[in-house]
UniProtKB/TrEMBL annotation, chains A, B:
Top-level taxon in the UniProt lineage: Bacteria
Annotated residues for binding of thiamine: 17, 49
InterPro entries: HMP/thiamine-bd, MTH1187/YkoF-like, Thiamin/HMP-bd_put_YkoF
Classification via SUPFAM superfamilies: MTH1187/YkoF-like (SSF89957)
Molecular function as annotated in GO: thiamine binding
Domain Thiamin/hydroxymethyl pyrimidine-binding YkoF putative: 10-89, 113-193
Name of the protein in its database record: YKOF-related Family
Length: 198, 198
Protein backbone atom coordinates (compact mmCIF):
# COMPACT_ATOMS: atom_id res chain seq x y z
CA UNK A 1 0.00 0.00 0.00
CA UNK A 2 1.00 3.58 -0.49
CA UNK A 3 1.92 4.21 3.10
CA UNK A 4 4.73 1.68 2.83
CA UNK A 5 6.09 3.13 -0.36
CA UNK A 6 8.04 6.09 0.91
CA UNK A 7 11.54 6.78 -0.19
CA UNK A 8 13.41 10.01 -0.37
CA UNK A 9 13.26 10.42 -4.13
CA UNK A 10 10.96 13.08 -5.47
CA UNK A 11 8.04 11.90 -7.57
CA UNK A 12 5.91 14.04 -9.80
CA UNK A 13 3.06 14.26 -12.20
CA UNK A 14 2.36 16.41 -15.23
CA UNK A 15 -1.41 16.35 -15.72
CA UNK A 16 -4.40 18.15 -17.16
CA UNK A 17 -8.16 18.07 -16.69
CA UNK A 18 -10.54 18.82 -19.52
CA UNK A 19 -14.13 19.59 -18.55
CA UNK A 20 -16.11 19.44 -21.77
CA UNK A 21 -18.33 22.39 -20.98
CA UNK A 22 -18.56 26.07 -21.81
CA UNK A 23 -17.84 26.61 -18.11
CA UNK A 24 -14.48 24.82 -18.25
CA UNK A 25 -12.62 27.73 -16.64
CA UNK A 26 -14.94 27.77 -13.63
CA UNK A 27 -14.65 23.99 -13.26
CA UNK A 28 -10.86 24.03 -13.36
CA UNK A 29 -10.42 27.04 -11.10
CA UNK A 30 -13.01 25.72 -8.67
CA UNK A 31 -11.33 22.36 -8.48
CA UNK A 32 -7.87 23.79 -7.88
CA UNK A 33 -9.33 26.07 -5.20
CA UNK A 34 -11.05 23.19 -3.40
CA UNK A 35 -7.99 20.93 -3.53
CA UNK A 36 -5.43 21.04 -0.75
CA UNK A 37 -2.08 21.34 -2.50
CA UNK A 38 -0.06 22.37 0.54
CA UNK A 39 1.95 19.15 0.54
CA UNK A 40 3.24 19.42 -3.05
CA UNK A 41 5.13 21.83 -5.24
CA UNK A 42 2.70 22.93 -7.94
CA UNK A 43 2.96 24.91 -11.18
CA UNK A 44 0.50 25.43 -14.03
CA UNK A 45 1.56 26.45 -17.53
CA UNK A 46 -0.26 26.66 -20.88
CA UNK A 47 -0.36 22.89 -21.33
CA UNK A 48 -0.37 21.05 -18.01
CA UNK A 49 -0.19 21.37 -14.26
CA UNK A 50 2.84 19.80 -12.60
CA UNK A 51 2.94 18.61 -9.00
CA UNK A 52 6.03 17.26 -7.28
CA UNK A 53 6.54 15.66 -3.90
CA UNK A 54 6.10 12.32 -2.16
CA UNK A 55 4.25 9.68 -4.14
CA UNK A 56 1.23 9.55 -1.84
CA UNK A 57 0.76 13.32 -2.04
CA UNK A 58 1.17 13.43 -5.80
CA UNK A 59 -1.57 10.82 -6.20
CA UNK A 60 -3.78 12.46 -3.56
CA UNK A 61 -3.70 15.86 -5.26
CA UNK A 62 -4.24 14.58 -8.81
CA UNK A 63 -7.09 12.33 -7.65
CA UNK A 64 -8.76 15.22 -5.86
CA UNK A 65 -8.49 17.68 -8.76
CA UNK A 66 -10.11 15.14 -11.09
CA UNK A 67 -12.75 14.01 -8.60
CA UNK A 68 -13.78 17.55 -7.69
CA UNK A 69 -14.74 18.11 -11.32
CA UNK A 70 -16.12 14.65 -12.03
CA UNK A 71 -18.53 14.71 -9.11
CA UNK A 72 -20.17 17.83 -10.55
CA UNK A 73 -21.54 15.59 -13.29
CA UNK A 74 -19.79 17.33 -16.18
CA UNK A 75 -18.07 15.17 -18.79
CA UNK A 76 -14.40 15.45 -17.90
CA UNK A 77 -11.17 13.87 -19.10
CA UNK A 78 -7.96 13.54 -17.12
CA UNK A 79 -4.51 12.93 -18.53
CA UNK A 80 -1.45 12.36 -16.43
CA UNK A 81 2.15 11.28 -16.62
CA UNK A 82 3.49 10.10 -13.27
CA UNK A 83 7.26 9.87 -13.06
CA UNK A 84 9.98 9.01 -10.58
CA UNK A 85 13.71 8.69 -11.05
CA UNK A 86 14.07 10.33 -14.46
CA UNK A 87 17.82 10.64 -15.03
CA UNK A 88 17.37 14.16 -16.39
CA UNK A 89 15.18 15.28 -13.52
CA UNK A 90 16.32 18.20 -11.43
CA UNK A 91 16.46 18.20 -7.67
CA UNK A 92 14.80 21.59 -7.71
CA UNK A 93 11.17 22.53 -7.63
CA UNK A 94 10.27 20.32 -4.75
CA UNK A 95 8.23 20.87 -1.69
CA UNK A 96 10.38 21.44 1.36
CA UNK A 97 7.87 22.16 4.09
CA UNK A 98 6.31 19.88 6.66
CA UNK A 99 4.79 16.85 5.04
CA UNK A 100 1.64 15.50 6.62
CA UNK A 101 -0.83 12.85 5.57
CA UNK A 102 -2.75 13.15 2.31
CA UNK A 103 -5.21 15.92 3.00
CA UNK A 104 -7.86 15.65 0.35
CA UNK A 105 -10.40 13.19 1.68
CA UNK A 106 -13.22 12.53 -0.79
CA UNK A 107 -12.54 8.83 -0.24
CA UNK A 108 -16.23 8.05 0.19
CA UNK A 109 -17.33 9.82 -2.98
CA UNK A 110 -18.58 7.26 -5.48
CA UNK A 111 -17.77 8.09 -9.06
CA UNK A 112 -17.59 5.65 -11.92
CA UNK A 113 -14.76 6.22 -14.36
CA UNK A 114 -13.17 4.60 -17.38
CA UNK A 115 -9.43 4.69 -17.85
CA UNK A 116 -6.41 3.44 -19.70
CA UNK A 117 -2.97 3.23 -18.17
CA UNK A 118 0.46 2.27 -19.39
CA UNK A 119 3.50 1.53 -17.27
CA UNK A 120 7.03 2.10 -18.54
CA UNK A 121 9.65 0.74 -16.12
CA UNK A 122 12.80 2.03 -17.77
CA UNK A 123 15.39 1.33 -15.14
CA UNK A 124 15.58 -2.44 -14.85
CA UNK A 125 13.99 -4.29 -11.97
CA UNK A 126 11.98 -7.48 -11.76
CA UNK A 127 8.59 -5.96 -12.31
CA UNK A 128 6.40 -8.20 -14.47
CA UNK A 129 5.21 -10.37 -11.58
CA UNK A 130 4.65 -7.21 -9.57
CA UNK A 131 2.48 -5.67 -12.26
CA UNK A 132 0.37 -8.81 -12.68
CA UNK A 133 -0.09 -9.07 -8.91
CA UNK A 134 -1.17 -5.44 -8.60
CA UNK A 135 -3.60 -5.77 -11.49
CA UNK A 136 -5.11 -8.79 -9.76
CA UNK A 137 -5.48 -6.66 -6.65
CA UNK A 138 -7.35 -4.05 -8.68
CA UNK A 139 -9.79 -6.74 -9.80
CA UNK A 140 -10.34 -7.71 -6.15
CA UNK A 141 -11.35 -4.08 -5.51
CA UNK A 142 -14.06 -4.35 -8.14
CA UNK A 143 -12.20 -2.74 -11.03
CA UNK A 144 -12.86 -4.28 -14.43
CA UNK A 145 -9.58 -4.88 -16.24
CA UNK A 146 -9.18 -5.58 -19.94
CA UNK A 147 -6.52 -5.38 -22.62
CA UNK A 148 -6.27 -2.57 -25.14
CA UNK A 149 -3.71 -1.52 -27.70
CA UNK A 150 -0.83 0.28 -25.94
CA UNK A 151 -2.56 0.27 -22.57
CA UNK A 152 -4.55 -1.62 -19.95
CA UNK A 153 -8.17 -0.58 -19.71
CA UNK A 154 -9.85 -0.06 -16.34
CA UNK A 155 -13.45 0.57 -15.38
CA UNK A 156 -14.90 1.13 -11.93
CA UNK A 157 -14.88 3.41 -8.93
CA UNK A 158 -12.43 6.28 -9.16
CA UNK A 159 -11.11 5.99 -5.59
CA UNK A 160 -10.43 2.27 -5.93
CA UNK A 161 -8.79 2.97 -9.27
CA UNK A 162 -6.43 5.66 -7.98
CA UNK A 163 -5.51 3.40 -5.05
CA UNK A 164 -4.70 0.61 -7.49
CA UNK A 165 -2.70 2.89 -9.77
CA UNK A 166 -0.71 4.28 -6.86
CA UNK A 167 0.03 0.76 -5.69
CA UNK A 168 1.22 -0.48 -9.08
CA UNK A 169 3.42 2.61 -9.47
CA UNK A 170 4.88 2.18 -5.97
CA UNK A 171 5.44 -1.54 -6.27
CA UNK A 172 7.14 -1.17 -9.65
CA UNK A 173 9.47 1.38 -8.10
CA UNK A 174 10.15 -0.94 -5.16
CA UNK A 175 10.86 -3.84 -7.51
CA UNK A 176 14.03 -2.08 -8.56
CA UNK A 177 13.07 0.06 -11.54
CA UNK A 178 15.28 3.14 -11.16
CA UNK A 179 13.11 5.21 -13.53
CA UNK A 180 9.39 4.55 -13.73
CA UNK A 181 6.83 6.36 -15.85
CA UNK A 182 3.10 5.70 -15.79
CA UNK A 183 0.61 7.40 -18.11
CA UNK A 184 -3.09 7.54 -17.24
CA UNK A 185 -6.09 8.71 -19.26
CA UNK A 186 -9.47 8.86 -17.55
CA UNK A 187 -12.97 9.86 -18.55
CA UNK A 188 -16.05 10.38 -16.39
CA UNK A 189 -19.67 11.21 -17.18
CA UNK A 190 -19.26 10.52 -20.87
CA UNK A 191 -22.57 10.46 -22.75
CA UNK A 192 -21.21 7.44 -24.60
CA UNK A 193 -20.31 5.35 -21.59
CA UNK A 194 -20.98 1.72 -22.25
CA UNK A 195 -21.07 2.52 -25.92
CA UNK A 196 -19.03 3.91 -28.74
CA UNK A 197 -18.17 7.58 -28.74
CA UNK A 198 -18.56 8.20 -32.43
CA UNK B 1 11.66 12.94 -43.24
CA UNK B 2 8.58 10.87 -42.86
CA UNK B 3 8.58 9.53 -46.41
CA UNK B 4 11.90 7.82 -45.77
CA UNK B 5 10.77 6.24 -42.56
CA UNK B 6 8.81 3.30 -43.80
CA UNK B 7 9.29 -0.16 -42.50
CA UNK B 8 6.89 -3.02 -42.34
CA UNK B 9 6.18 -2.80 -38.65
CA UNK B 10 2.78 -1.52 -37.66
CA UNK B 11 2.68 1.74 -35.74
CA UNK B 12 -0.25 3.08 -33.81
CA UNK B 13 -1.65 5.79 -31.64
CA UNK B 14 -4.14 5.83 -28.80
CA UNK B 15 -5.45 9.40 -28.60
CA UNK B 16 -8.29 11.63 -27.50
CA UNK B 17 -9.51 15.12 -28.26
CA UNK B 18 -11.28 17.23 -25.68
CA UNK B 19 -13.19 20.26 -26.97
CA UNK B 20 -13.99 22.32 -23.88
CA UNK B 21 -17.46 23.29 -25.01
CA UNK B 22 -21.05 22.23 -24.41
CA UNK B 23 -21.00 21.16 -28.07
CA UNK B 24 -18.16 18.69 -27.57
CA UNK B 25 -20.11 15.83 -29.17
CA UNK B 26 -20.70 17.81 -32.36
CA UNK B 27 -17.06 18.87 -32.51
CA UNK B 28 -15.76 15.32 -32.09
CA UNK B 29 -18.24 13.72 -34.47
CA UNK B 30 -17.72 16.46 -37.04
CA UNK B 31 -13.98 16.09 -36.91
CA UNK B 32 -14.06 12.32 -37.29
CA UNK B 33 -16.47 12.72 -40.20
CA UNK B 34 -14.25 15.25 -41.98
CA UNK B 35 -11.08 13.21 -41.49
CA UNK B 36 -10.06 10.64 -44.08
CA UNK B 37 -9.30 7.51 -42.07
CA UNK B 38 -9.31 5.11 -45.01
CA UNK B 39 -5.59 4.35 -44.66
CA UNK B 40 -5.69 3.25 -41.02
CA UNK B 41 -7.43 0.75 -38.80
CA UNK B 42 -9.53 2.77 -36.36
CA UNK B 43 -11.52 2.01 -33.23
CA UNK B 44 -13.10 4.27 -30.62
CA UNK B 45 -13.96 3.10 -27.11
CA UNK B 46 -15.06 4.92 -23.94
CA UNK B 47 -11.62 6.38 -23.29
CA UNK B 48 -9.64 6.87 -26.50
CA UNK B 49 -9.59 6.39 -30.23
CA UNK B 50 -6.93 4.03 -31.56
CA UNK B 51 -5.50 4.17 -35.08
CA UNK B 52 -3.01 1.67 -36.46
CA UNK B 53 -1.08 1.58 -39.70
CA UNK B 54 2.01 3.09 -41.28
CA UNK B 55 3.67 5.86 -39.32
CA UNK B 56 2.90 8.61 -41.83
CA UNK B 57 -0.80 7.72 -41.90
CA UNK B 58 -1.04 7.50 -38.11
CA UNK B 59 0.39 11.00 -37.80
CA UNK B 60 -1.71 12.32 -40.69
CA UNK B 61 -4.98 11.13 -39.17
CA UNK B 62 -4.25 12.28 -35.62
CA UNK B 63 -3.07 15.68 -36.87
CA UNK B 64 -6.22 16.11 -38.94
CA UNK B 65 -8.65 15.14 -36.16
CA UNK B 66 -7.03 17.68 -33.83
CA UNK B 67 -6.71 20.40 -36.45
CA UNK B 68 -10.31 20.07 -37.64
CA UNK B 69 -11.45 20.95 -34.12
CA UNK B 70 -8.76 23.52 -33.33
CA UNK B 71 -9.44 25.58 -36.42
CA UNK B 72 -13.05 26.08 -35.31
CA UNK B 73 -11.66 28.30 -32.56
CA UNK B 74 -12.89 26.20 -29.65
CA UNK B 75 -10.46 25.51 -26.80
CA UNK B 76 -9.37 21.93 -27.41
CA UNK B 77 -6.84 19.57 -25.87
CA UNK B 78 -5.25 16.57 -27.58
CA UNK B 79 -3.58 13.67 -25.85
CA UNK B 80 -1.80 10.90 -27.70
CA UNK B 81 0.46 7.93 -27.16
CA UNK B 82 2.31 6.92 -30.33
CA UNK B 83 3.87 3.47 -30.22
CA UNK B 84 5.81 1.11 -32.43
CA UNK B 85 7.39 -2.21 -31.64
CA UNK B 86 5.72 -2.97 -28.33
CA UNK B 87 6.72 -6.55 -27.49
CA UNK B 88 3.19 -7.31 -26.36
CA UNK B 89 1.58 -5.84 -29.46
CA UNK B 90 -0.53 -8.05 -31.64
CA UNK B 91 -0.21 -8.36 -35.35
CA UNK B 92 -3.96 -8.03 -35.62
CA UNK B 93 -6.13 -4.99 -36.03
CA UNK B 94 -4.24 -3.51 -38.88
CA UNK B 95 -5.29 -1.96 -42.10
CA UNK B 96 -4.94 -4.37 -44.97
CA UNK B 97 -6.22 -2.39 -47.93
CA UNK B 98 -4.39 -0.26 -50.44
CA UNK B 99 -2.15 2.28 -48.78
CA UNK B 100 -1.85 5.60 -50.53
CA UNK B 101 -0.34 8.91 -49.55
CA UNK B 102 -1.54 10.77 -46.47
CA UNK B 103 -4.92 12.07 -47.51
CA UNK B 104 -5.82 14.77 -45.07
CA UNK B 105 -4.31 17.96 -46.46
CA UNK B 106 -4.91 20.95 -44.19
CA UNK B 107 -1.18 21.61 -44.47
CA UNK B 108 -1.71 25.31 -45.14
CA UNK B 109 -4.00 25.86 -42.18
CA UNK B 110 -2.24 28.08 -39.67
CA UNK B 111 -2.99 27.23 -36.08
CA UNK B 112 -0.88 28.09 -33.09
CA UNK B 113 -0.61 25.39 -30.47
CA UNK B 114 1.23 24.64 -27.24
CA UNK B 115 2.43 21.15 -26.50
CA UNK B 116 4.51 18.89 -24.34
CA UNK B 117 6.03 15.67 -25.57
CA UNK B 118 8.06 12.88 -24.03
CA UNK B 119 9.98 10.20 -25.86
CA UNK B 120 10.59 6.77 -24.37
CA UNK B 121 12.96 4.68 -26.48
CA UNK B 122 12.72 1.37 -24.66
CA UNK B 123 14.52 -0.93 -27.01
CA UNK B 124 18.12 0.24 -27.09
CA UNK B 125 19.49 2.23 -29.98
CA UNK B 126 21.78 5.22 -30.17
CA UNK B 127 19.13 7.87 -29.97
CA UNK B 128 20.28 10.81 -27.87
CA UNK B 129 22.12 12.54 -30.72
CA UNK B 130 19.12 11.82 -32.95
CA UNK B 131 16.71 13.45 -30.52
CA UNK B 132 18.87 16.56 -30.11
CA UNK B 133 19.25 16.86 -33.88
CA UNK B 134 15.50 16.56 -34.48
CA UNK B 135 14.73 19.10 -31.78
CA UNK B 136 17.16 21.50 -33.46
CA UNK B 137 15.27 20.93 -36.71
CA UNK B 138 12.01 21.83 -34.98
CA UNK B 139 13.58 25.12 -33.91
CA UNK B 140 14.57 25.78 -37.53
CA UNK B 141 10.89 25.38 -38.46
CA UNK B 142 9.97 28.16 -36.04
CA UNK B 143 8.90 26.01 -33.10
CA UNK B 144 9.84 27.38 -29.68
CA UNK B 145 11.41 24.62 -27.59
CA UNK B 146 11.91 24.71 -23.84
CA UNK B 147 12.46 22.30 -20.98
CA UNK B 148 9.74 21.21 -18.58
CA UNK B 149 9.46 18.58 -15.90
CA UNK B 150 8.93 15.16 -17.52
CA UNK B 151 8.59 16.60 -21.02
CA UNK B 152 9.87 18.98 -23.67
CA UNK B 153 7.64 21.97 -24.25
CA UNK B 154 6.82 23.17 -27.77
CA UNK B 155 5.04 26.23 -29.04
CA UNK B 156 4.28 27.20 -32.63
CA UNK B 157 2.39 26.19 -35.74
CA UNK B 158 0.56 22.90 -35.46
CA UNK B 159 1.57 21.57 -38.89
CA UNK B 160 5.26 22.29 -38.30
CA UNK B 161 4.93 20.70 -34.89
CA UNK B 162 3.35 17.47 -36.14
CA UNK B 163 6.02 17.26 -38.84
CA UNK B 164 8.71 17.64 -36.21
CA UNK B 165 7.11 15.08 -33.90
CA UNK B 166 6.75 12.56 -36.72
CA UNK B 167 10.39 13.07 -37.63
CA UNK B 168 11.68 12.61 -34.10
CA UNK B 169 9.55 9.46 -33.70
CA UNK B 170 10.74 8.07 -37.04
CA UNK B 171 14.38 8.89 -36.51
CA UNK B 172 14.38 7.35 -33.03
CA UNK B 173 12.93 4.18 -34.51
CA UNK B 174 15.56 4.21 -37.25
CA UNK B 175 18.34 4.72 -34.69
CA UNK B 176 17.75 1.18 -33.49
CA UNK B 177 15.17 1.47 -30.74
CA UNK B 178 13.10 -1.69 -31.10
CA UNK B 179 10.22 -0.29 -29.03
CA UNK B 180 9.52 3.44 -29.10
CA UNK B 181 6.75 5.30 -27.29
CA UNK B 182 6.06 9.01 -27.60
CA UNK B 183 3.42 10.84 -25.59
CA UNK B 184 2.06 14.19 -26.76
CA UNK B 185 -0.26 16.68 -25.04
CA UNK B 186 -1.45 19.68 -27.02
CA UNK B 187 -3.70 22.65 -26.34
CA UNK B 188 -5.11 25.21 -28.76
CA UNK B 189 -7.21 28.34 -28.31
CA UNK B 190 -6.72 28.42 -24.56
CA UNK B 191 -8.00 31.61 -22.94
CA UNK B 192 -4.83 31.55 -20.83
CA UNK B 193 -2.33 31.27 -23.65
CA UNK B 194 0.79 33.24 -22.82
CA UNK B 195 -0.33 33.21 -19.22
CA UNK B 196 -1.12 30.96 -16.35
CA UNK B 197 -4.25 28.86 -16.44
CA UNK B 198 -5.21 29.18 -12.81
Amino acid sequence: MSQQCGNSRIAGCSFSVHPMSDEFVEHIKGSLKETDTSNVWIDTDEVTTTVRGEIEHVFDVTRAVYLQIARSGVHVAFNATYSIGCPGDSEGDQYTGDIGDPANGLRDVKQNTNAKFSLYPMGGGDYMDVIYREIDRMKEKGIEVSAAHYATKLSGDVNAMFEGLEDVFCETEKSGSSHTVMTVTMSANSPSEKGKRS
